[in-house]
Design goal:
With 279 residues, this protein is of the alpha/beta class. It folds into 2 domains: 235 residues, Aspartate Aminotransferase, domain 2; 43 residues, no CATH class. 34% of the residues lie in helices and 16% in strands. The protein has 9 helices and 11 strands. The strands form 3 sheets. A 7-stranded mixed beta sheet has the order 1-9-8-5-4-2-3, sandwiched between helices. Strand 6 and strand 7 form a beta hairpin. InterPro entries: DegT/StrS_aminotransferase, PyrdxlP-dep_Trfase, PyrdxlP-dep_Trfase_major, PyrdxlP-dep_Trfase_small. This is L-glutamine--2-deoxy-scyllo-inosose aminotransferase KanB. Belongs to the DegT/DnrJ/EryC1 family. GO terms for molecular function: pyridoxal phosphate binding; transaminase activity. Keywords: Aminotransferase, Transferase.
Length: 279
């Protein structure tokens, strides 16, 4: 209602008309506080958060980005959009990158290791960070499906050089559509701020007089989407607690199921490549 009553749906400019309401700025601050990270930059989606992260990390043509085979299409779309090459490697029991497969896939062109914390599962970040440190590689966390999850006391998305989140309708919290890139690196944060808004430097309060240090794109979130996200992020801890409670119910139920033996049912030709049956 604050946004609708002011009539200012854009996150930048129109200072006098917005009656002091800055929902995107408030949401970024809430994310920083909740995640324990120094900088958060809102974007229009989790996909564009990945686009922004790869751009400000300097990833481009000729670079290779190692990523898991089990992921969502946006992960490798963002790499291709940057002009880089996605290198898909196997996953392990974490449901994301197998560190041994990552190390075997490194070439002179490798620039980034990008674990994808699928369905809230977390990568072996200690092992992956060690690999990145030893080979001078960037660690970029695709945490689009894992906001609120922690790894050894640290929130996912805050452990690598940068992390990305999605706030679409089916994520843990939603803006309707939205995303965020987070980092502790002030230079990455400043460049992300510019890049998401056509390269505007956001200096002063006259949008028409702002400088453009470099080219960017329109990856902005709207004030309406940010207002929805602001209400949602304040409920994040409760949402995660409910998910963990439901997970425990399912895990406890699975423990009561007896072990299952499998046998193949031959087809008419006696071939054993038919359906599986269990008893």
């Amino acid at each position: 209602n604050d946004v609708l009553e002011s009539g200012v749906l854009m996150r930048y400019g129109f200072d006098g008309a917005r009656n002091g309401h800055w929902k995107a700025k408030e949401l970024e601050q809430e994310l920083q506080d909740n995640l324990g990270v120094k900088h958060a930059q809102l974007t229009s989606s989790g996909t564009t958060a990945l686009n922004v992260a790869l751009a400000v990390l300097g990833v481009g043509a000729g670079d290779e980005v190692i990523m898991p085979t089990f992921t969502f299409v946006a992960s490798f779309e963002s790499i291709l959009a940057a002009g880089a090459t996605p290198i898909l490697v196997e996953i392990d029991d974490t449901l994301t990158l197998d560190p041994k497969a990552v190390e075997a896939a490194i070439t002179p062109n490798t620039k980034v290791v990008m674990p994808v914390h699928m369905c809230g599962s977390m990568a072996d970040l200690d092992a992956l960070k060690d690999i990145c440190d030893r080979h001078n590689l960037i660690l970029l966390e695709d945490a689009c499906q894992a906001i609120g999850a922690s790894y050894k006391g640290k929130k996912l998305g805050t452990i690598g050089d940068a992390g990305c989140f999605s706030f679409d309708y089916v994520k843990t919290i939603t803006c309707g559509e939205g995303g965020a890139m987070v980092t502790n690196d002030p230079n990455l944060a400043v460049n992300a701020d510019h890049y998401t808004d056509h390269g505007h430097d956001h200096v002063g309060n006259d949008r028409g007089a702002e400088s453009h240090p470099f080219l960017g794109y329109n990856f902005r979130i709207s004030e309406l989407n940010a207002a929805v996200g602001l209400a949602q992020v304040r409920r994040l801890d409760g949402f995660v607690a409910t998910q963990r409670k439901n997970k425990k119910v399912l895990k406890d139920a699975l423990k009561t199921i007896p072990e299952v033996s499998f046998r193949r049912i031959p087809d008419e030709a006696g071939d054993s490549a038919g359906f599986l049956s269990f008893f």
